[in-house]
Amino acid sequence: MARSGILKQLLDVGVQILGAVLKSSSAKTPSGSATTGGTPPRTRPTRTTTRKPGDDIWSASTQTVELDPRGVPDLRLAYAPHPDRDPDAGEVVWTWVPYAENDGRGKDRPVLVIGRHTADRVYAVKLTSKEKEDGREFLPLGSGPWDSKGRPSWVDLDQLYSVHVDGMRREASALDLDRFARVAQQLQRRYGWKAAD
Q: Where are the annotated segments for Disordered (predicted)?
């Protein structure tokens, strides 16, 4: 039973990535900056790949993918920040996040890593500097070094992302344990996710 759940999760992520690849290859939009739309910004190259940024397969396989949080019942929340240029649970990192329309546009933004997804992907929730009132649930987080202007941030509790380690633009900072625990508590209440062993 648990094995079929993991297989279904992997298949769902594969389908989402394939859909994003197909959309990006059929989109005829001009390339633009990350904040105005267009294609995802270049990410840092991997240590082992010979593909170059700009290759469709390279950017599609490492792009950030939105997941339905209710479809990920086995997510394990963890706190293990480590300043090593890789996204670790408990860290705020910057990545290119697709817009909800899933039309190839998106924005470079901070996300809070909340747990491990696969060997080369992590789960993350989006941060925003604008308080929203559109019916979605946001948790006030306060300010931190991830925002160069020192603006307060909110965690979007309604959206979950799978971030590839090579899709991370930069490692901003580790969130302190107290604030991470508040986020984890709200996610546990909302989705039933448990803490990692």
A: 25-59
Among 124, 122, 117, 5, residue whose Cα is nearest residue 71:
5
CATH tag, 2-195: 2.30.30.110
Dist. CA 18–CA 37, nearest whole Å:
20
Task: Please compute the mean of the pLDDT values over residues 14-39 and round it to a whole number.
Answer: 40
Q: CA-CA distance, 56 to 187, in Å (whole number)?
A: 34
Under 8 Å between Cβ of 126 and 161? yes
CA angle 42, 48, 52 (to 5 degrees): 35
Question: Residue 95 has what DSSP assignment?
Answer: E
Structure tokens at 21: 């690849």
Contact 146, 127 (CB under 8 A): yes
Residue whose pair of structure tokens reads 């990692």 in the numeric block: 196
pLDDT in tens, 158-194: 999 999 998 888 777 899 999 999 999 999 999 999 9
